[in-house]
Amino acid sequence: NTSHPQIGSLTGSPHLSELSINSQGGAVPASVILSPNLSPDTKQASPLVSPLLNDQACPRTDDEEEGRRKRFPTDKAYFIAKEVSTTERTYLKDLEVITSWFQSAVSKEDAMPEALKSLIFSNFEPLHKFHTSFLKETEQRLALWEGRSNAHIRGDYQRIGDVLLKNIQGMKQLAVHLWKHSEALEALETGIRGSR
Q: SUPFAM superfamilies recorded for this chain (predicted)?
């Protein structure tokens, strides 16, 4: 006897022998004859699309397996690359807030001296340019990995390390802009105190 606290006993119902429950939770008379191609609610059944329910008479070919692997990568490195791409996209959005919106607002209101604006915003443009390029390269490599190109013919897919190594070297050149960050913050704080 199956019992659920909210709805009471299901199998003890005198109507269950006469009614069945369809997929939407509605009652269907038990006299409805079910064909193999119809669901209990007498609608056309959907085909089985699960890869686990693949018909044994039609085993997958190697080409189908390779296509499936490209569409549904399971490699840990793929998910790491996907995370790098997502993080990079978020970081770029943050940089755009600073380089576009904040810069535009400060310029319109003439809220800070030119020297301070130059100190702050000159450091962000090289960062934005670098990270835009890095994101583009990462997304291109992910597209190869996911089989959205012909790279599998050349064997160029499922690699991300070369992109990361190249860009890590490029990040070293940005260090000078990052070192100016604390100088820019101090100048901004001094400017705020002076305007009070």
A: DBL homology domain (DH-domain)
User: Using an 8 Å Cβ cutoff, are 2 and 11 in contact?
Assistant: yes
Q: What mean pLDDT, rounded, does the chain reach?
A: 71
**What phi, psi does 38 have (nearest 5°)?**
-115, 145
- Other CB atoms within a 10 A radius of the CB of residue 159 amount to 15
> 112 and 157, same structural domain?
yes
Cβ pair 73, 148 in contact under 8 A: no
Both 78 and 17 in one domain: the answer is no
**What's the domain range around 32?**
1-43
Provide the pLDDT for residue 192.
83
- In this prediction, residue 14 carries a pLDDT of 45
Note whether 175 and 113 are same-domain residues. yes
From start to end of the chain, where are the E strands? 3-4, 8-9, 19-21, 27-29
Are 175 and 97 contained in the same domain? yes
**Segments of the chain scoring below 70 in pLDDT:** 1-60, 62, 64-74, 148-158
Cβ pair 18, 28 in contact under 8 A: no
pLDDT for the residue numbered 158: 62
Residues sharing a CB contact under 8 Å with residue 77, sequence separation 6 or more, in sequence order: 158, 160
**pLDDT at position 151:** 54
